[in-house]
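pls design
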């Protein structure tokens, strides 16, 4: 099998599984119990918190463990808007966010909050002037994803953060696709909150974190026991947390080499597709792009058919994002780029990972050439 869907999830690294194993087995103590057996779990959780904090240049007390990217996004938006509602009820986001942000905004709108969704240019980047213009006296929060999960476009985080800082607005970023893959600079970007998810960087599924800058007055997300400084109750997922920290450590220690290698493979793959397959063109931004992301529009082809035929040939790719593939709606991200429905239905996303080889990509290229020809005749 050729796996080209790393934006949907990544395999759990063997070293990560090995780090987790003891916490399913002989070290199963509850991290909130006072005896030494439980305190071994506490120590593992706090070491993991330190490891993750160090990758961001943050304080360990600013890292809150969650069940993943979706929960972190929900927490960041709901808890902030609620806590600051006496100050204002307006927030700003973009038209290309993941559903974890988009549907949370829909919920907030039903609760009487106002949300401005910024448009993007053809490559998927917002216009900083439009952000500036959208800020009102009652704007509490700006939430802009660092890198998009479908087209891989990376935003100008520094410019966005500068505006947020100058205008005194809180800044959250969904960095689920970015964390562990490209450098993140929370200080330079003036970020107050950042969401990440373990399974997007070779860690376990069902474990993520929210970075929350010291001093933020957000509401607590899950009410119960006193875990995560009382802000996110529930017995800690010790194996998950330990595994995620191991995965973070591995990703950050080899980030530059991994990114360069993936980017090199990516660029050659894109070049071959666009020059050898008639009607194929790259979607998104060439320069500001995640190292592993390839999104191609095959004019005149139904992407869902291509995905099925590629699957039969042993290649896993996706049409739109994993979360969209069950619905008949065209991708809101591709629509936001200005595509027609027909164009949006013709795009496939292929996302490379650190184990992807040149041989896998040349097999995929060969298969694509063949299938596109067949589908065009059909
Ligand atoms: C995967 C993803 C999420 C959701 O993360 P989960 O851990 O799967 O809940 C949120 N935002 C983006 C950009 C993602 O790619």
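designed seq:
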């Amino acid at each position: 099998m050729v796996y080209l869907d790393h934006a949907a999830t990544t395999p759990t690294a063997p070293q990560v599984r090995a780090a987790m194993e003891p916490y399913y087995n002989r070290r199963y103590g509850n991290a909130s119990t006072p005896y030494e057996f439980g305190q071994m779990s506490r120590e593992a959780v706090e070491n993991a918190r330190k490891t993750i904090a160090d990758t961001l240049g943050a304080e360990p007390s600013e890292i809150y463990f969650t069940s993943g990217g979706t929960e972190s996004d929900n927490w960041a938006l709901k808890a902030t808007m609620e806590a600051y509602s006496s100050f204002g009820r307006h927030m700003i986001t973009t038209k290309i966010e993941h559903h974890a942000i988009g549907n949370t905004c829909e919920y907030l709108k039903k609760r009487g909050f106002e949300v401005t969704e910024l448009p993007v240019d053809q490559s998927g980047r917002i216009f900083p002037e439009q952000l500036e213009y959208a800020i009102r006296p009652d704007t509490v929060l700006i939430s802009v994803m660092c890198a998009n999960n479908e087209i891989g476009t990376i935003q100008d985080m520094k410019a966005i953060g500068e505006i947020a800082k100058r205008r005194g607005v809180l800044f959250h970023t969904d960095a689920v696709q970015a964390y562990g893959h490209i450098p993140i600079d929370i200080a330079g970007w003036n970020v107050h909150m950042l969401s990440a998810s373990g399974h997007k960087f070779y860690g376990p599924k069902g474990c993520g974190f929210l970075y929350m800058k010291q001093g933020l007055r957000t509401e607590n997300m899950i009410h119960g026991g006193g875990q995560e400084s009382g802000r996110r109750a529930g017995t800690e997922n010790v194996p998950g947390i330990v595994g995620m920290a191991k995965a973070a450590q591995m990703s950050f220690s080899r980030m530059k080499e991994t990114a360069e290698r993936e980017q090199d493979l990516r660029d050659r793959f894109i070049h071959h597709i666009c020059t050898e397959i008639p009607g194929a063109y790259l979607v998104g931004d060439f320069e500001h792009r995640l190292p592993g992301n390839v999104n191609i529009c095959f004019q005149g082809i139904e992407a869902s058919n291509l995905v099925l035929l590629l699957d039969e040939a042993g290649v896993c790719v996706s049409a739109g994002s994993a979360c969209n593939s069950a619905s008949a709606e065209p991708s809101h991200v591709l629509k936001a780029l200005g595509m027609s429905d027909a164009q949006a239905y013709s795009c496939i996303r292929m996302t490379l990972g650190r184990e992807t080889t040149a041989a896998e990509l040349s097999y995929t290229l060969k298969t694509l050439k063949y299938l596109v020809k067949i589908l065009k005749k059909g």
